[in-house]
Amino acid sequence: MKTVEEIFAVLEEKFGVKRESLDKWGVTAVVSANYLHNVVQYLRDESDPKFEMLVDIAGIDYLTYPNHEGPRFAVAYALKSMSQPGLRIRLKVLVSEGNLKVPTISDLYANANWYERETWDQFGIVFE
After folding, report:
1. Rg of the chain over CA atoms, in angstroms?
2. Terminal CA-to-CA distance of the chain, rounded, Å?
């Protein structure tokens, strides 16, 4: 089984993800919306260990964050490995006010439908 560092190295090589520098736990990868579905599918089906459980999807509004630079919104995805229960990874997609669209992952995890609807209700982000 790979360590978190090895998993991030594979994600960076295959999908161009970058580690979130502000994450004090070191488990967050910033993913382009274009690669989100592929990254999630890879983590669920091919990664070692696999991330079989979607724990949560949450919208983030950076409007009042001090010194924030970049897009106003983000969508964060929390995934958990069932074969190695202490192992979690978080994916973050940055979303601009001008393009509030993110690919759906409800075809990969059935519970994503609920979380995506909740995020749409709270932030107006559309999951396509």
Report:
1. 14
2. 33
Distance in angstroms (rounded) separating the CA atoms of residues 89 and 118: 21
- Determine contact, residues 17/31, Cβ cutoff 8 Å: yes
* 107 DSSP assignment: T
Closest of 75, 65, 54 to residue 125, by C-alpha: 75
Q: What is the pTM of this model?
A: 0.95
C-alpha to C-alpha distance for 65 and 120, rounded to whole angstroms: 21
Contact 32, 93 (CB under 8 A): yes
pLDDT in tens, 66-106: 999 999 999 999 999 999 988 999 999 999 999 999 999 99
Tell me, letter by letter, the H, E, C secondary structure of 42-103.
HHHHCCCCCCCEEEEEEEEECCCCCCCCCCCEEEEEEEECCCCCCCEEEEEEEECCCCCEEC
